[in-house]
Each structure stands twice: as C-alpha cells, then as structure tokens.
Design goal:
Strand order of the largest sheet: 1-2
Number of helices: 5
Oligomer: single chain
Radius of gyration: 18 Å
Number of strands: 2
Shape: flat
Low-confidence stretches: none
Largest sheet: 2 strands, parallel
Amino acid sequence: MKALVEAVGRYKLFTSQQYRSVVFARLLQDLIDCGMANARTKISLGLAAGKVYKGQSEPVREFMESKKWLFWYPEDIKQKVTALAERRYENDCVIITAKILMR
C-alpha cells in the first residue's frame, strides 16, 4: 500500500490533498450508506473560528475563499448566534442554548 505524502502542520485536511481525498471518499461512502447523501453529493471543508489572531481574519478568509471553502470568523459566529437567540421560543436545544449564551 502506498504511503500518504507527509502533510504540513497540524491541520492535515487543509494542507494535504491526498488526506482530503481519502477522508472525503470515506465520509461520502458513510453518508450514502446511511441514506444521508447520494453519489452526486459534494463535500467541502469549512472552518468556524471562535478566535483568530488579531488582523488575520481577512487573510484566512481570502485563503479559504480561494479554495472555495467555508470560513466563519468570530464576528460571523456571533451574528448567527444572535439571530438564533432573537427567534421566538422553540423546543430546540440549539435555539435554547443561543438564548442562554446571549443573556
């Protein structure tokens, strides 16, 4: 069996195309087996960052956009949690948690 090429840094899915291919293929197969996807489903990476080094949000966003990956920086997350907290009451743990966080 051919060994995978050494990936750079801690975030191997972001830095190694070979790792991504292996993980995405297995993930897609698992989703198909569970009936949650089909062969046309496209998998993409995303990053939701609760904290980013000062002044680095924009370079990270540009890098992620260049790869067509999703990036939510801290301001995005706060906006989305605030929007959930402003919704009327629902018996949904996500909305209840958002309401508690925004108190």
